[in-house]
Amino acid sequence: METREIKFRGKRTDELKGWVYGHLFESEFKSWIFYEMGHESFDGEVSEYEADLEWVEVDPKTVGQYTGLNDKKDVDIYVGDIVRFKFGKGMQVSRVEFTQDHDYGYSLSDAGIMLSYIYTEKIQLEVIGNTTDNPELLSNPI
User: Fold this and answer.
1) pLDDT tens digit string along 112-140?
2) Of residues 53, 58, 67, 66, the one with CA closest to residue 27
3) What's the rounded Cα separation, in Å, for the pair 119 and 134?
């Protein structure tokens, strides 16, 4: 059985306002993404024993899990991404979402397509944005 890397992303709530990637920790009211931040040792190498965890508070509405899939340019695909793909004779734009009632777990919301490794290769998805930074892409398909 193939294992999938479990990681998340979220938009920072601090003054930096960018995206952060790593592991998710949630409480009742807040969410954090944490990741290992290495420190150089005296010889210039980073040792696993010298790593610290960096915790960054993120907006819970922006948190998305990595699907385990990559687009045609090898970009990681996360829940909340907006993807473009050829469907039939034209191009279609859709949002990636988590689906609990199917084996695959992820789907393209507007297309009714369940995502899997095989199908993702076939339709050649391309990440063109996300629902936090680019919601207009869903109302103005390319």
Assistant:
1) 677 765 566 667 889 999 999 999 998 86
2) 58
3) 25
Q: Any bridge partners for residue 40, and if so which? A: 46
Residue matched to tokens 């393209």 = 108
Please tell me whether the overall predicted TM-score, pTM, comes out greater than 0.70 for this model. Answer: yes
Judged by DSSP in three states, 139 sits in helix
Distances (CA, A) of 124 to 46, 58, 89, 91, 110: 37, 30, 14, 11, 16
**Helices and strands (H, E) in the chain, number of each type:** 2, 11
Question: Closest by alpha carbon to 142, among 128, 125, 121, 123?
Answer: 128
Distance from C-alpha of 30 to C-alpha of 12, rounded to nearest angstrom? 12
Indicate whether 52 and 113 sit together in one domain: no
Residue 88 domain-assigned? Answer: yes
Q: In this structure, are 26 and 72 located in the same domain?
A: no
CB distance 18 to 12 below 8 Å: yes
